[in-house]
Every structure is written in C-alpha cells, then in structure tokens.
Amino acid sequence: MTNAVIESLGFPSLRSSHRGQWFPLYLEPLVGSGERFCIGVLATDGIATEAVAVPSLSRLSEIYGAASRSLGWAAELALRETRYHLEQHGIESIQGTRPPVDGLTFGKIRQGAGENLANLARVALLQVSSLAALEGSESEFASHAQHDASIAYAVDANQTRVLSSVKKIVTSIRPELKEYFGLSVAPSQSARPLVIGFVGKRIAVNFAALTAATAAGLSGQVDRAKARVLDLEWLRTGKLGDQLPIPRRKIKCELLVLRHNAGRKGDDGKMLREAERSLEAQADEFKIDWRPFKNTNAMAHALIDREVAGFAR
After folding, report:
1. What residues in the chain have per-residue pLDDT under 70?
2. What is the CATH number of domain 153-308?
3. In angstroms, rounded to a whole number, what is the distance separating the alpha carbons of residues 283 and 275?
4. pTM
C-alpha cells in the first residue's frame, strides 16, 4: 500500500493531546452519614486550572426537598475554595489538605487528556458523575455548562451594578466615605481574599439582589447572597483584626438586598418569599442582619444613616 493510498484513507488526527491531572469532589448531604455525591471536578495542566460543576443539582430536590438549595450553595462554595487552594499550592497539596467545607472529600488524583483543559475536565466529570452522564452527549453537556456560566455571570453583574449604584449615590453625598468601599482582606495565605462591599467605622456591608424573574435565576441570586453572608461572618469572626479600620468587636455586619419587584403576586410572589426565607435562615444562623430595599437610592441613604449617625437612635 503506497503512501498516497494511506493518506487517502483520511485517518482522523489525534485530538486528545492536551494532558493534565484531575480529581473529583464529593459532598455528604448529611455530615458523617457516609452518603455522598459528586459535585464537580477540578483539573490542571500545571499552568491553568479548570473547575467544572455537576449540572442540574436542583434535580436533587426530589430527594432532599428544600435542603437541596443549601447543598447547591455548599457545592459552589467547596468548588470555589478548593480551586483557589489548587491555584495557590498545586494539585499535590490536595492529598494532605483539610477540605474547606464539612462533609467534603477529595477523590484520587488521576491523569487525563483532552482537546484542551476545559474539555479534559468535562470528559472527566462524565466519568464520575451520574448526573453529568444523564445530560447525554458531551456536546449537550458543554452547551448546558456554558448556559449555567452565562447565568452566573449575569447574576454577578447584577450585584456589581447594585454596589456601583450605591457607591455613586453615597459618595455624591458623603465623598469622605469613598475610601470605605471595596475592602479586600485575606483570612490566611491559603484562603481566597474576601471582598467586602463597604467597611466603615461603624458598619460593614455586603450587597445582593433578589430581582430575577425565573426560579433558576432567583435560586442563583440566593446562593450568592448566602456566600456574601458567609464573607461577613469571616470578617467579623476571622483573624482579621489587624486588617480592619476598627476593632472587630465594634463593627456591625449587614447584608443589604435589592428586591424592587417585591410586589409580585401568585407563583412569582411565592417564589420570592421562599427565596427570602432561605436567605433569612442563613443570615440568622450567623447572626447577620439582612435588610431589603426597593431601590438603590433607599439603600444608599440607609447606609449613610447607619454609618454616619451610628446606632444610637
């Protein structure tokens, strides 16, 4: 057989040439129960890091009911914190690292290959997660993951707009408060930096929004609002005293939430009330006050009142 004949056969070129390492993450719905499910995969090629979450964790509501939302939030937090550790210390350090979330365990580090690092991670997830496998073909799964990422970006962008709007109003009235916006502190070298919306002399504030029109969008906003509650808890109780403008014991932590569509009725109103109850339960657990506002103007004036006038009234 001549070379020309061989070339004419058109053998496909090798596409899975990008090599790396990956490991799965498992979470126990009830800590200590021994039951666990896969929440995602982290992969690295020694240069970049890729995190892929298990899609459609909301389907666990058929098993765990309302608790599935807390599981989803814990899964997101676990992936985010573990990815930060991986980027800082490398994949080998995972073997001797205490997981950042109770009930989280790391699977065995494995070798893999793909068209690129993202493809490697997606293919790896299909091997360890039945929920991911149920998504069908890899192309369908990739489309779903891209859709989830676009939703997450929209939610984060929305909350960023809340902060920007409040900051603009506050600094136009009280320019001296500008320096208190956007404080970034690190609990430790191995933890991600915490970015707090506002830390003044009397009050520390994070901002969130409950404005989405769909159940999926609203659920995502609740999860991110809960993460901001946790950040405030770290700020208040973590070893950050030397990084704060005031002693920890004197600071009041609050979450200010935009919900200008609070007047929704029927199923939309019920959906919003459920979202608020879920967020309130998280805030109560950490003794963080959360306050709803119908617009950013009211939110900004409330922040000024509480920071400048204090809590004497």
Report:
1. 1-16, 31-34, 56-70, 133-159, 185-194, 238-250, 260-268, 310-313
2. 3.40.50
3. 12
4. 0.51
> Using alpha carbons only, what angle is made at residue 192 by residues 277 and 258, rounded to the nearest 5 degrees?
30
Q: What is the DSSP letter of 203?
A: E
Q: What DSSP assignment string belongs to 232-288?
A: HHHHHHSS-GGGSSS-GGG-EEEEEEE-TTTT--HHHHHHHHHHHHHHHHHHHHTT-
CA 153, 230, 183, 189 torsion-angle sign: negative
Residue type present at position 211: T
Question: Which value, to the nearest 10 degrees, does the dihedral of the CA atoms of residues 84, 87, 88, 93 take?
Answer: 100
For residue 208, the surrounding DSSP H or E stretch is strand 203-209
Q: How far apart are CA 311 and CA 252, in angstroms?
A: 9
Q: In the structure encoding, which two tokens stand for residue 307, read together?
A: 């920071």
Element (H, E) at 231: helix 215-237
Kindly list the distances between the CA atom of residue 43 and the CA atoms of 36, 53, 83, in Å, as whole numbers in the listed order: 21, 12, 9
Choose among 176, 274, 270, 170: nearest CA to 219: 274
Which tokens sit at 312?
A: 């004497």
The number of residues in the chain equals 313
Q: Read off the DSSP letter of residue 30.
A: S
Q: Which of 206, 6, 184, 23 is nearest to 97 (CA)?
A: 23
Per-residue pLDDT tens over the stretch 292-313: 999 999 999 999 999 987 544 3
DSSP codes, 37-84: EEEEEEEE-SS-EEEEEPS-GGGGHHHHTTHHHHHHHHHHHHHHHHHH
Sequence ranges of the domains in the chain: 18-144, 153-308
| CA angle (295, 291, 261) in 5-degree steps | 40
* DSSP β-ladder status, 203-209 and 252-258: parallel
